[in-house]
Design a protein that fits this description.
Strand content: 25-35%
CATH class of the largest domain: Alpha Beta
Radius of gyration: 23 Å
CATH topology of the largest domain: Rossmann fold
Distance between the termini: 42 Å
Helix content: 25-40%
Length: 296
């Protein structure tokens, strides 16, 4: 999005505001956010306040004297003191068709819910959580095989084009902002590690969505008798007589599946704790004793 803004002729970038560097990697060395790194490449001033509500942060943003703010994937609420600064407001690009999937995890939510479509909404921010009036939106049809990273990349491209089409009319005062409907509203939340646990008491179709939606964070897994195993790719196959939900069963000659409440979840790519990722056949060769056991 930052690169798209930098290419727009009617935009002069005065600064980038992002979260502070955080420990990353095994050595826990401080690393800038991707947008912070890109700002450095573009030679833009960079602000990294720990809390936007701090008076010093408000003063720093005020000092930029920006006429418009653009927010994408910031991850924190913006206080009213900052929302009031730009005369054209702060516009947010949200990767869902608002009011559906407000909040922190709209892209995984669309996959988890099996939505037929999703999209990007451009709206003017207010003090609520993704509740401001809508300027424009674009919808896309979902095929039902998307994963979160791929859908995020697709929506980012759409968001950049939507912003470029909308920015001129908004600044000219010819693009109205329409109050959001209450119909169909829903709220998403940040994920926790345990949200990745695959529950065989649910149908395999829902678990397969979970695998795609929670990639890469928090990832999905099962607890086996030999320890936790990450499930990186999965599919759905019909159940067979004798299947008991929670049981690990053979999938064809050399594969592995999890019997569930409805059908089987084919475990196509796996990663044992502390190990490398591998296909099911490779996994089973060294762990044939897991066949017939139950996940925790």
């Amino acid at each position: 999005m930052l690169d798209a803004l930098a290419r727009m002729r009617n935009v002069t970038l005065v600064a980038v505001v992002t979260t502070p560097p955080r420990p990353a990697g095994r050595r826990a060395e401080l690393a800038a956010t991707p947008v912070g790194e890109r700002a450095g490449v573009l030679g833009l001033p960079l602000l990294t306040p720990a809390r936007l509500r701090d008076p010093a942060a408000v003063a720093d943003v005020s000092g930029l004297r920006a006429g418009l703010g653009i927010l994408a994937d910031y991850g924190k609420l913006v206080p009213q003191a900052i929302l009031d600064l730009p005369r054209h407001g702060i516009l947010n690009l949200h990767p869902s068709l608002l009011p559906r999937h407000r909040g922190a995890t709209p892209i995984p939510a669309a996959i988890l819910e099996g939505d037929d479509e999703t999209g990007v909404t451009l709206f003017r921010m207010d003090a609520g959580l993704d509740t401001g009036p809508i300027l424009a939106a674009v919808a896309v049809t979902l095929a039902g095989d998307e994963d979160a990273p791929g859908l995020e990349a697709r929506l980012a491209t759409l968001a950049a084009a939507l912003l470029e089409r909308s920015l001129g009319p908004w600044l000219a005062g010819t693009l109205p902002a329409v109050v959001q409907s209450r119909e169909g509203e829903s709220l998403t939340r940040p994920f926790r590690r345990d949200d990745g646990r695959l529950d065989p008491g649910r149908p395999a179709a829902l678990l397969e969505r979970q695998v795609r939606a929670l990639r890469p964070w928090p990832g999905t897994f099962v607890e086996t008798t030999t320890g936790r195993v990450g499930v990186l790719r999965a599919g759905v196959a019909p159940g067979e007589p004798g299947d008991e939900p929670g049981q690990l069963v053979r999938d064809g000659r050399s594969g592995l599946a999890l019997a569930t409440a409805a059908d089987r979840l084919r475990l196509l790519e796996l990663q044992p704790a502390g190990g490398r990722r591998m296909d099911a056949a490779t996994f089973v060769r060294g762990r044939a004793g897991l066949i017939g056991t139950r996940v925790g």
